Every structure is written in structure tokens, then in C-alpha cells.
Amino acid sequence: MIRVVVVDDSVEVVSNIERLLSFEPDLEVVGTANDGEAGLQVVRETHPDVVLIDINMPGMDGLTTAATISASMPATQVIMMSVQDDLDYVRRAMIAGARDYLLKPLDIDDAAAKIRQVYEMRKSKLAVAAAAEEPVLGKVITVFSPRGGSGCTTLAINLALALRAFTKRKVVVVDGALQFGDVGVMLNLHGTRTIADLAVHVEEMDASFASEMTIAHQSGIRALLAPPKPENAELVSADAVRRILQALRHSFDLVVVDGGHVLNDLLLGALDESDELLLLTTPDIPAIKSAGLMLEVLDALGFAEEKRALLVSMAGRRYGVKVEDIERSLGCKALATIPYDDAGPILAANQGRPMYETDPEAPLCQAVLAVARKLTAKMAGGEEPPAEPPKPKGKKVFSLWGHG
Ligand SMILES: Nc1ncnc2c1ncn2[C@@H]1O[C@H](COP(=O)(O)OP(=O)(O)OP(=O)(O)O)[C@@H](O)[C@H]1O
Ligand SMILES: [Mg+2]
Question: Counting ligands in written order, which one lies closest to the CA of residue 354?
Fold first, then answer.
């Protein structure tokens, strides 16, 4: 409903317009007045979408009234009315902030059309302004696994570096493994600021405070570290995790979370806030079984299939299950495989220097770069349609190996 106020010194004109507009189902006269001052008062009280003002009125004239409304209540659109078809009048009305001009006596169809038109103009202007103010939010990618030692931290850190190298955007890696997080040690960062500092001030937190708690790494990425002691993890609630990630989205283009391997409300909080859920499995049957269960949990909780991806870590490991068999068992295609590397990751962890920095050409790093490229393309909307996932042969994950 478009809300209209009519201001004219002639009582008769006002009631006439009111009567005519009452036949228009989308227009409602919410107030009337017979002079400028009273008109201003009614507009202030009713906040109409459109006000029709007679240009010639005793006391405060139409032009002054229009100028006051345009300046103090820009959401209200003014249409000027006059008996004179004079270009100079029109020009002065426009300078006073009027959006359109109507000749009296009003042609009701013309008047209704103009009221709708100025209202729509205002709406689209507001929409454009809102879109311009809307910040471009960063994307959150969470790497997690149902089992410890799967390579989550290794992948999260190297993925953050690959994303930075590939996109040149602002990247932060968040240690979501709150009790025994390794991001700090693997990046050789020793800051005192951690995610716990944000969690205890979550009510006052904004994007810049969240960003200040991150620590710069020489590669150009930043890191939000886990609390220094396992017991401090308790300071961080699931709600805090969500809000911290929301705040980081405002300062960073890409937020990579090391989600760890504990399925609890903290991980679910991070997953809730994530655009991409990267589920990691190693190529051994206990891990694949757990990945299958994790997929079932994600399904049950309603996490969209398009948001999640399976990754096989330590692929090609001796005696490991083949990737095709893992895919068939889990009923989904792997987004990528991260090859097994018996020296690189452990050396990197021991030296606190990520592989992507020291040996970017290594197959592991190239695989991580491929993940970075695929995710970037997907998040930019340029994704190729996913291949048809292989159908599971049996009901459960164990069935492939005859355990089921
Ligand atoms: N692709 C890989 N090939 C061989 N070893 C790897 C690979 N990725 C990680 N590792 C090694 O496996 C171990 C576990 O890796 P990482 O710490 O990244 O896993 P995680 O899932 O974060 O473990 P946690 O659950 O303990 O946090 C480390 O010793 C690491 O060096
Ligand atoms: Mg880890």
C-alpha cells in the first residue's frame, strides 16, 4: 500500500482528491492538511511515501513546505500541484525537491500513475543504496575429519597459503581445534592473542576487534590461534565461534578453519557458518567408516550437499584403500586427493614452516593448490556441474569390504 498525504488550502480540493484516490486499491490517504505548517506536522506524524502539495497556499507556501520535507524527511516523495501550467513553476517545484508535478483539477489516472512512479523510483533508489552499503562478505571454508591425525591442520594451513598465493586476497586461518590446536606451532607463531580473547568479549566484538586478535604470518596470511592451554577452550562457546567467524568475514576474503576431529557443538557452530565443508578421510577402513557416519550426521542435520566436499588425505599410501573404492563406498566423488608424503609434512611441522612455503612444487602442494582453484571457481559461481556420484554398492560403508 502506498501511503499518501494531501496538502491544499482548499478543503473541497482535499476531500475531492481523497475521494478519488480511495478508488485506487494500492493507494491510501493517511493524512490531510490545509496549510504548510499543518502539512509538515501531518507528514512528521504519518511518514507517508508520497505527499501531494499545492504550490500556492497562504502562510507557509507549497515550495517552502516541499523544501522542508525533502530536506528533513527524504523518504517522503513530494509531488507539487498547481493550477498553472508554467515551466518556471515546474522548475521551482523541482528545485524545492518535488519529484513530479500535477495540474489541477487533477486527472485521477494521471495522479495515481505519478504517485506510483515516484514511489517506485524511491524504492529502487533505496535498493541501490542498500546494495552499495552491503559489505562484500568473505567465505568460510572449514576442514574437518572425524578422526585425529588425518591431516586437517596440514591441509588448512597449506590451503590458506595456496589461496593467498592464488587469489592475492586477504586470508586468515582459524584454529578451531581449541584444546590442542597446532596452527600456531606449525606456522611458528607465538602470539599471546588467541580466539579465547575474542570469545570472552564476544558481546563487544566487531570486525576490527576480531581482526586485531589475528597474528600476521610472513607469507601474508593471518592466523587466529587456539587458546594457550587446553582448559581455556571452555571459554569458547559454539555461539562465540559463529559470531567470530561472522566478524572475520567482514575483514577477510577467505577464512580457512581447521575444524579438528571432535564432533561437538563447536564444530557444528563452525560448520553452520561455513560456505564450504571439507570432510577429510585417510584411506583406511576405520577412517572411511567414520567419514560415512559423519556424512550421515551432516545429512541428518540438513547441511546442504552442494556445500560439502570429500577429500582423501594421504592418498596412495601403501596398503591404503583406493580412492575409487572410497568414493563408491561413501557414495560421493572426492573433490581432490592429497597425496601421501612421508617426509614433507612432518619436516614442515617440526620446522614450523609450511610446505607451501618451502616446497610449493611438491605434489602435496600442487594438490592443495588444485583444491584452492576449485574452491575459488565454485565460490565465484563458475563451477562445472559435479560429475554423477558413483552409486554405493551396498547400504553401508562397510559393505564394500564384506564387513557389513
Ligand atoms: N598428506 C600427508 N602425507 C603424509 N603425512 C601427512 C600428510 N598430511 C599430514 N601428515 C602427517 O600426519 C600427521 C597428522 O597431520 P595433521 O596434524 O595435519 O593432522 P590433523 O588432522 O590436524 O591431526 P589432529 O587431529 O591431531 O589435529 C602429522 O604428522 C603430519 O605430518
Ligand atoms: Mg590438527
Answer: 1
All three cell numbers of 330, joined, read: 561413501
Q: What is the residue whose three cell numbers read 618451502?
A: 358
Q: Go through the domains of the chain in sequence order and give each one's CATH number.
A: 2-133 (3.40.50.2300), 139-401 (3.40.50.300)
Ligand 1 close to Cβ of residue 177 (< 6 A): yes
Ion ligand 2 neighbours, Cβ < 5 Å: 152-153, 177, 182
Distance separating alpha carbons of residues 28 and 6, to the nearest angstrom = 11
Best residue among 143, 153, 365 to mutate for probing ligand 1, ranked by most atoms within 8 Å of CB:
153
d(CA 184, CA 304): 31
Burial class of residue 167 in the structure, from the number of CB atoms within 10 Å of its CB (0-12 exposed, 13-18 middle, 19+ buried): middle
Residue 173 backbone phi and psi in degrees, to 5:
-110, 130
pLDDT (tens, 9 = 90+) of the chain, 404 residues, equals 999 999 999 999 999 999 999 999 999 999 999 999 999 999 999 999 999 999 989 888 999 999 999 888 888 999 999 987 777 878 888 888 899 999 988 899 999 999 999 998 888 777 777 667 666 789 999 999 999 999 999 999 999 999 999 999 999 999 999 999 999 999 999 888 999 999 988 888 888 899 999 999 999 999 999 998 999 999 999 999 999 999 999 999 999 999 999 999 999 999 999 999 999 999 999 999 999 999 999 999 999 999 999 999 999 999 999 999 999 999 999 999 999 999 999 999 999 999 999 999 999 999 999 999 999 998 887 544 444 444 443 333 333 322 22
Q: Is 314 in the pocket of ligand 1 (CB under 6 A)?
A: yes
Residue with cell 557444528: 268
- Find out whether the beta carbon of 373 lies less than 6 Å from any atom of ligand 1: no
Protein residue whose Cα sits closest to atom 13 of ligand 1: 149
Q: Does the C-beta of 347 come closer than 6 Å to ligand 1?
A: no
Cβ of 149 less than 6 Å from ligand 1: yes
